[in-house]
Amino acid sequence: xxxxxxxxxxxxxxxxxxxxxxxxxxxxxxxxxxxxxxxxxxxxxxxxxxxxxxxxxxxxxxxxxxxxxxxxxxxxxxxxxxxxxxxxxxxxxxxxxxxxxxxxxxxxxxxxxxxxxxxxxxxxxxxxxxxxxxxxxxxxxxxxxxxxxxxxxxx
Length: 155
Description:
Blueprint: E1 29-33, H1 46-61, E2 65-68, H2 78-88, E3 91-95, H3 101-112, E4 117-121, E5 136-138, H4 145-154
Parallel strand pairs: 1-2, 1-3, 3-4, 4-5
């Protein structure tokens, strides 16, 4: 067409063109430190419900992929996998509710490496003296849906 100037290129691709590449961000992970086996002071399946209805949704809401030691089904040394995750994960959530020795061991390792960790508890017992000064989030031990839904954003 006569009299119409050609458009100048700005050097940046227009939105919606095929020349724009999608940038993949690295996956952010959250290691879950909690009892996995049944505990006599809790109803069967209690800690699995804590994971399914409280911890996992909180991780996903924060843009983190949750990882628990029993997620790996490989037949290798589980402790090596746990140690690697303790050191490498971006965040950890630690449930200190049942005073499980393995939980405190893993929490101690995480703290030794000065890694970000969120402590949660059902509040049935007070925190041990050594970690009583650390902030922790108390969730309802009965895991009522309305109570759990309020704690997810807090975590």
